[in-house]
Amino acid sequence: MDYYKALGVDKKASEQEIKRAYRKLAQQHHPDTEKGDEKKFKEITEAYEVLGDKQKRQQYDQFGSAGSGPGGAGFGQGFEGFQNVNFDFGGGGFGDIFDSFFGGGARRAAEKRGPSQGSDIEMVIGLKFEEAVFGVSKEVEISRYETCDKCKGKGAEPGSNLKTCNTCSGTGQQVRIQRTPLGQIQTTAVCSDCEGRGQIPEKKCTKCRGETRLLKTSVIKVKIPAGINDQAVIRLKGKGEAGSLGGPYGDLFVHISVEPSREFERIKDDIYTTQHIHVLQAVLGDEIPVKTIHGNVKLKIPAGTESGKTFKIKDHGVSKVNSTTKGEHYVKIKVDIPQKLSKKERKLYEELIAETNLDIKPQSKGIFG
Predict the structure, then answer these.
(1) Per-residue pLDDT reduced to its tens digit, 261-281
(2) Are residues 217 and 104 in the same domain?
């Protein structure tokens, strides 16, 4: 086995680089981790035992073997020689390195558990266009864990006391000792019987069976503010799931999905529509009704208005959330050209051509066809 490859370092790597490489790989492959690999862990440990020692590394670089001389680990004889190996990482020995590996160590990970906050819940509410514009109240049904109303989240039958857990002797943790090539390693885990509490009820609550929570279906009222946008998120504090042991509730996050309108296009707080007018209205001007989300309004079209011109109707857009201010309504004008003309209309257009002295040659097809 190539020890340098095993640790993923160059042959010119410094002692600190080798140490960092080992720490990283040991954390990744330790048998007590979820994706641990005992075989790989033994390989990198063997590699570090050699490359982490100046004398052994020099011998390995020169002869390809660390030998089994004084202070050696007896690599030719497998891992049996490692049983009493101790690593010094500038602190309290091998136990401290694994403390740093696992987020502060098993001592902190398996401390007694108290009430914990419940999980958050996420859901989607669909709204019609008008509901999002003007606001609405919705009642939604959700399934969530709620604190048991009988034992108040204690897990014990009312009148029943809590007693020390026999499995962990009240520590809230279980200790396991494992033999490894590095010697015996002590690890701790949350007690499976009391779930880290250190105490268990003398008599479990008959309603929640000691679980402290119950799965229930509840109806929650959600107030949707006027002007809310598509894909907005509303946070309702304390409307999520109950925590364990009577812990506080999590939050409910409501994701908004707004159905688009067939009449109005909304961009932020502004509304956009297209208004068709006759060519004569564009030429001579007019006053036309325009439908807005707040009802019909009159819009003056100046004479000579071109197709594509946009007019603004102030304060006729969507209300800004939690504000009395409104956006604008923008009207884009589209001038319609007649597709067919009556004989009288044709004659009038021909007279108009003559009046304007335009060199126009009417075609046999089209509106004069």
Answers:
(1) 999 999 999 999 999 999 999
(2) no
| Same domain flag for 143 and 223 | yes
Q: Pick the more confident residue, 188 or 133.
A: 133
Quick one: 98 and 152 in the same domain?
no
Rounded Cα distance, 60 and 66, in Å: 5
80 and 132 fall within a common domain: no
Determine the Cα–Cα distance for residues 289 and 72; give it in Å rounded to an integer: 96
Q: What is residue 245's DSSP assignment?
A: G
Confidence band of 110 (pLDDT split at 50, 70, 90): very low
User: What domain count does the chain have?
Assistant: 5
Q: Report the predicted TM-score, pTM, of the whole model to 2 decimal places.
A: 0.60
At residue 83 the predicted structure's pLDDT band, cuts being 50, 70 and 90, is very low
Q: Which residues contact 68 (CB under 8 A, 6 or more apart)?
A: 74, 75, 76, 77, 81
In sequence order, what are the residues at sequence separation of 6 or more whose Cβ sits closer than 8 angstroms to the Cβ of residue 218?
A: 141, 142, 143, 144, 146
Q: Could you tell me if 249 and 347 lie in one domain?
A: no
Maximum distance among all Cα pairs of the chain, rounded to whole angstroms: 119
Domain extent for 168: 162-201
Is residue 83 domain-shared with residue 37, that is, in the same domain? yes
Least confident of 15-19, 117-121, 238-242: 15-19
Residue 89 gets the label, from left (phi > 0), alpha (psi -120 to 50) or beta, of alpha
> Across the strands, what pairs with 174?
189
- Kindly state whether residues 345 and 327 are assigned to the same domain: no
Q: What angle do CA 203, 204, 206 make, to 5 degrees?
A: 115
